[in-house]
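[job 0417] fold request received: rhomboid protease
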Amino acid sequence: MPSFPQFNPLRIRSYVLRLPLCTRVLLTIIVALWVATIPFAWLREWASLEPDKVNFGTMHRLNLFPLIHLGFFHMIFNIIALAPLLERFESEFGTLVTLLLFTGPFGTLPGGIYTLLEKFILRSNTTVMGASIWVFLLLASEAMKTHKANPHFSIGPYKIPTWTTPLILILLTSILVPNVSLIGHLCGAGIGYLWATNTIKFLVPPEKLLRWLEAKLNLLGRLPHYVSVDQKTYGRYGVLPSSTASGGAGPTSPLPRSAATGTLTGTGKEGVRLGP
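[job 0417] inference complete; emitting structure tokens
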């Protein structure tokens, strides 16, 4: 009989222990906020992105809505989808860059665009929450990288551009999963495309400044699992890449292993999910 791969908790534990620092922190915050909403249900209302309640006094919603979730399954599916993508991003760009982007522009930009579309174009007030907006942001960024090496994939006689894969997933998710925000997912993917094409790379401080800050604070030496921005000097995780027969090129990362979807929330006081 053919053998099937078995669930191995040791492999999962090993994977979790290898996660870089910022990925660990963000995933821990997501879980902690879900736990906090059990006794303090008002946290969902306070942190969710409700367009009509966004003003200069409630700008925290633009940063917090990806971290808050409707329930356990909403949270766990988003974590499963986000972890490998976020780990890959941090391994490529460093812990400091990842922290700056995911606590700032990668929340405020898609959240701000979503709010403007809902209030002034769609004339609606659909409340959203969940990390799936980050999932599709990172999927769009990865799809653009893959597109450069493999511009098309084939389904029967049809050739489909690789960069459209996240858009297809967004459409399928919106059709198959109830109470999912199509607009929210598209806003996240849009920012991912802009990042991958270097259009918004100006959001990251100059590498020289980041290197100086890392050296000044000795972040690589003080913080376990920290990924240095200066990969040319330290290599990822502070280890210089070993030379190879092809000329000393460093190791390349595999493609992300998971592409599950996340979730947003509904209208009024009822929640709607950004994914399964």
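[job 0417] notes: Residues 30-237 form a domain with the Rhomboid-like fold fold (CATH 1.20.1540.10). Residues 240-270 have pLDDT under 50 and may be disordered.
[job 0417] exit 0
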